[in-house]
Design a protein that fits this description.
The chain is an all-alpha fold. It has one domain (20-148). It contains six helices and no strands. The protein has helices at 19-34, 36-45, 47-55, 62-84, 89-96, 99-149. Helix 2 packs across helix 4 (62-84), helix 3 (47-55) packs antiparallel against helix 4 and helix 4 (62-84) packs antiparallel against helix 6 (99-149). The longest helix is centred in the last third of the chain and has 51 residues, at 99-149. It is elongated and about 95 Å long. The two termini are 52 Å apart.
C-alpha cells in the first residue's frame, strides 16, 4: 500500500482574521439578523445560485453570475412584497410557502442556465467560424507564395538533411500539403 502523505501545518493555514475583517463579518451577521425576513426569502429563493456556485469550476464563475442575476430577479418581487408591507416574518413565510413563488424563483434561475448555455454555444460557434476564416486566409497566402516563388517554398524543414547517394547533394523533403 502507498504511504499517505501528511499535510504540513503552516501558519498560512491558521490565518487569523484582522480587525477590519471581523468588523465586516459582524456587520454582515447583524444585517442578516436585523433583516431576517429578507434573509429567509433569499436563503430559500437563491438555492439554485448556491448550487451553481458549488458546481461552477471555471475561474470567472460566469455561470454562477448569470444564474445568480436571474435568480435574484425572480426573488425580487417577493422581496418587494415583504419590504412594502410590514417587513415581518409572517409576510416572508407566507411568500415562500406559496408554490407559485418558488416556481417563479427557480424558473428564473433555470432561465439563467438557458442564457448561459445559449451564450456559451454562440461564442463557440463564432470562435470556430473565426478560426476557419483565418485558416482559409493562411491557405490563400500560402498559395500566393507558391505561385510567386515556386514549389520550393512549400518544403518542410527538418533537423536531418538527406543526401542523394549518387551525387552527394541534399535532397528536398516532401512538400507540405
Amino acid at each position: 500500500m502507498a504511504k499517505k502523505k501528511k499535510k504540513k501545518v503552516t501558519k498560512a493555514s491558521h490565518k487569523k482574521l484582522s480587525f477590519k475583517q471581523w468588523l465586516i463579518v459582524l456587520g454582515v451577521v447583524a444585517a442578516l439578523i436585523v433583516f431576517f425576513p429578507t434573509t429567509v426569502i433569499l436563503a430559500v429563493g437563491m438555492l439554485p445560485t448556491m448550487v451553481a456556485a458549488l458546481v461552477d469550476r471555471y475561474p470567472g464563475k460566469n455561470k454562477t453570475f448569470t444564474i445568480g442575476a436571474m435568480n435574484f430577479a425572480g426573488c425580487f418581487p417577493y422581496l418587494l412584497e415583504v419590504w412594502l408591507q410590514t417587513n415581518s416574518m409572517n409576510v416572508a413565510l407566507n411568500a415562500i410557502s406559496q408554490p407559485k413563488a418558488i416556481i417563479v424563483m427557480y424558473a428564473a434561475a433555470g432561465f439563467g442556465y438557458l442564457i448561459n448555455a445559449f451564450v456559451t454555444f454562440l461564442v463557440s460557434v463564432v470562435l470556430v467560424q473565426k478560426s476557419e476564416l483565418r485558416l482559409k486566409k493562411i491557405t490563400q497566402e500560402k498559395q500566393a507564395l507558391i505561385d510567386r516563388w515556386g514549389k520550393g517554398v512549400n518544403v518542410r524543414q527538418s533537423n536531418t538533411v538527406q543526401f542523394d547517394q549518387e551525387e552527394g547533394e541534399p535532397v528536398a523533403s516532401e512538400p507540405v500539403s
